[in-house]
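Recall the central idea of this unit: under ordinary conditions, the amino acid sequence of a chain determines the structure it adopts. In this exercise we apply that idea directly, starting from the sequence alone.
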Amino acid sequence: MLVRERQEVQEVSRPGGVREPLRHLRIAGALASGLLFALAFPGPDLGWLAWIALVPLLLVIRDLTPARAFRFGLLAGLLGFGFLLEWIRIFGLPAWGLLTAALALYLGGFAAGTSFLARGRPVALLWAAPLTWVAVELVRSVGPLGFPWGLLGLTQYRTPAVLGLASVLGVYGISGLIALVNAALALALSRRRPDRGSGTAVAAAALVVAAALASAAISAGAVREAAARAERRIIAVVQPNVPPQQRGDASSVALIVEGLLRQTAEARSAGAEIIVYPETAVPAFLGEAPELRTAIAHSAAGALVVAGAYMAGPRNGAVVLDPRGESLGAHAKQRLVPFGEAGVVPGVDAHPVRTQAGTIGMVICYESAFPFMVRSLVRGGAGLITVITNDGWFGRSAGPAQHAAHAVVRAVEGGRSVARAANTGSSMLIGPDGTVQRSLPLDTAGMLVASLPVGGPVTPYVLWGWLVAPLAVAVWVLAAAPAGIAALRRRPAVAWRLAAAVAIPAVPWVLGRLLAPGGDGPGPLAASGVLLASMLVGWGHLLNRRGIVTSTAVSLGATGLLVWAIRAAYAQYGFQVPAGVPADAWFVAILGYVLGGIAIEAWLRGAVFASAQELGGWVFAVAASTAMGIGLYMGGARVPQEILFWHLLTSVGYGLLRARTGDALGLGPARGLGDAAILALAGLR
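Accordingly, the structure predicted from this sequence is:
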């Protein structure tokens, strides 16, 4: 095997050899994976393609270094997520491009991580690929930067034989199973002549797949048996089909309320005990509108109403109204759509609401994409999950169908019925096994009524299966640790320089934040201290006289484009972002931001980047400096998710530019000016 790899390297590097054909084949393979990945999700909804989508990419990276593998994974991600998220173009090309680029980084990370664990050991692909895929999906689903759209397991929401596995291992378990099958196929195709080792490994993988499917069938049967014994309630969901733009029209309020009250009365006439409205269906602050609450209660005639409405803050919320129109409990949306909910304050907690008709767990719109939120509600006693949403902004694109798939998987994970009320569709009533019992198509006004089981035993996923994804992260770290430790032992001096590059500037940074609390930037003391400390680590790491012109020009141009893109995304919703710099002291403020930006880049893309690159290559250097850059802003008093996405994209971009030009100081002005502009977004939260 080593001889063959050495021959391939010689052929690729030989003048007039096969460098270009191989490169073109690799590019085609990466693009093929990206396209197959996108086609597996709704709108095309060809879920079976997920089982082969990763095969071309895995064949491409099987003999590449992590750095080269990252590039091809990034390429696959740009095409795949670009198609998957094409509906975001409704809100402007900038928002679509920014989110696509951010998610593509994770697919690049999957390729690099798999290559790191399996390079030179083909059979290791069978465990390295699923392990890395699950770990990457979890990392991009949690924390301030969490965006769990396009999880591979969601493609199986219409495949009962596979979907049942969600009740045991959740959506991440299904993703891991799909990645395992892809890895087995890639291993089988990559061997010109099958050998005993690879054949045995593929056979073992087949046994794992068979065991997983058997487990899915057994668990699905248990869920159905529990549902048959559970108490049942008649649930109704209302679909008003009011255009989102009309909700802001004061002249339409009376018509919207009249329509809601009429549909509520119709649902009650059909026997509904719980009636669910969509997100922000009520065009008023219910807490301040006792007459409206009374009118809703009168129309409901004894039924409970889960009403989507704005709450004080302002917050996007849901309120459970009792038969008298009084609130039994409420939930304020915690996970706000990036670039999509300016002017809304996120909620801070979520608890199920106990009622005479059972305990109700509420999630709003985008929150249904987060498995751990629904799991927490079921652990808290929720017997019914209500998902309220307004997908009308997405028109007739693939967005509403992709969003609805999450509700089906959430039902199976928790073993709970789900009532999904969508303003313009698609509303659904879903059983605990993921069966969609009733649904309404897009752009249709109406309601759905069905008897659904409420409560029952919790699923294995809720009890312990949720651990599969965190364990994947832990196992990946343990598997990568020997190579990392070996690298540190081989180059202890470099490791110590990296530690010094991280630690020495951290002292003045922390002091600056402590002495000037409440800000989101470094503060004057921190900025000057970081710059001085970074220079002590090594001036040669900061400045490249040939590269500084390029790094300055490109970073300023790209940062200006990104600032415009984000402001344009907010402008789609009628929000004008303030300047962010005081008009009466703009020169001093701008100078402070520029100096702070120079300090940050001198630290991260200077001292830290240089030591990390020497220790583990440019990919490690980009990753390390990016992680630290985001960490500087996490936990700030007023840092919305958009700003963290901003630092993710700019830090990666600056890292790639630093690797190209060798210069860090030229990046400083763009960092400072960009931060000044983007921090103004905090005022919209």
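The mean pLDDT is 86.
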